[in-house]
């Protein structure tokens, strides 16, 4: 065992979290309490701090597309991605903001909400072939729809289609239901995990919520950063 000696001074987060220069790369960004909770009061916001929020926004700026499950959109009241000061220069040569790509089977989404009506980059809906035709039509009016899979989203096909549309730097913001499937399908290249210094108990989900993985992947620790009592871990495949 070794002690991690703190590096003096601030780190350059843009450099630290740069995507590989080529190829498709799927990064997930999640926050958990010390006892493994991915939710506090049914949301994730209560788990983070200002640095976590800063990193959350910066990772969006570094991505070509942000994948998120419909439950997270509903629980957290997701609006469209907005540029921030922290993005200074990082999107040069790219669209000003990455689109959100919402995973949904029911398409029970408010297509009149700003997420669809005010998005600077048209929101993408990752849908299934058996989705309700009327909901699908409503989605198509307000979003770019990618159909992958029959009853259940075919995540590898959806990611391949996003990449074919030029979105090779992918960011998945969960939630735990979606992330469990991304991992089960072997699509996760990197996990950015904020460890929040809270103990919550109760019955929140963990950052992956799905059936046990037959072959649990073991990740490699790529980086540990600290802000206050929070740890910011980067693990890669
Ligand atoms: N700690 C963190 O970092 C973090 C991050 C994100 C979210 N959260 C929290 O996690 C909770 C939400 O997570 P969650 O796991 O319940 O939901 P989720 O993963 O955000 O979304 C699940 C939804 O995605 C759609 N979906 C999932 N798998 C699908 C498939 N195979 N085919 C088609 N559609 C599929 C379905 O949408 P439809 O129901 O529309 O069909 C499903 O209900 C919230 O409390 C949120 O605050 C925590």
TrEMBL record:
A molecular-function term among this protein's GO annotations: 5-amino-6-(5-phosphoribosylamino)uracil reductase activity
Gene3D superfamilies found in the cross-reference section: Dihydrofolate Reductase, subunit A
Pathway involvement of the protein, from the record: Cofactor biosynthesis; riboflavin biosynthesis
Keywords: NADP, Oxidoreductase
Xref: InterPro entries: DHFR-like_dom_sf (IPR024072), RibDG_C (IPR002734), Riboflavin_Biosynth_HTPR (IPR050765)
A biological process from GO: riboflavin biosynthetic process
Protein name: Pyrimidine reductase family protein
Organism from which the protein derives: Actinomadura spongiicola
């Amino acid at each position: 065992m070794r002690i991690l000696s703190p590096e003096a001074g601030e780190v350059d987060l843009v450099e630290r979290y740069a995507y590989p220069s080529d190829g498709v790369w799927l990064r997930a960004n999640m926050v958990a309490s010390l006892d493994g909770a991915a939710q506090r009061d049914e949301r994730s916001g209560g788990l983070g701090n200002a640095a976590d929020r800063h990193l959350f926004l910066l990772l969006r700026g570094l991505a070509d597309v942000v994948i998120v499950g419909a439950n997270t959109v509903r629980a957290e009241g997701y609006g469209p991605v907005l540029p921030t000061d922290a993005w200074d220069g990082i999107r040069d040569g790219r669209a000003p903001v990455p689109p959100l790509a919402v995973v949904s089977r029911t398409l029970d989404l408010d297509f009149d909400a700003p997420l669809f009506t005010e998005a600077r980059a048209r929101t993408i809906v990752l849908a299934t072939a058996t989705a309700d035709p009327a909901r699908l039509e409503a989605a198509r009016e307000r979003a770019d729809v990618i159909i992958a899979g029959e009853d259940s989203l075919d995540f590898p096909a959806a990611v391949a289609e996003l990449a074919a549309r030029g979105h090779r730097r992918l960011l998945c913001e969960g939630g735990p239901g979606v992330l469990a499937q991304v991992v089960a399908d072997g699509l996760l290249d990197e996990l950015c995990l904020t460890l929040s210094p809270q103990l919550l108990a109760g019955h929140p989900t963990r950052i992956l919520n799905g059936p046990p993985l037959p072959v649990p992947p073991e990740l490699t620790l790529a980086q540990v950063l600290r802000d206050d009592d929070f740890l910011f871990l980067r693990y890669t495949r």
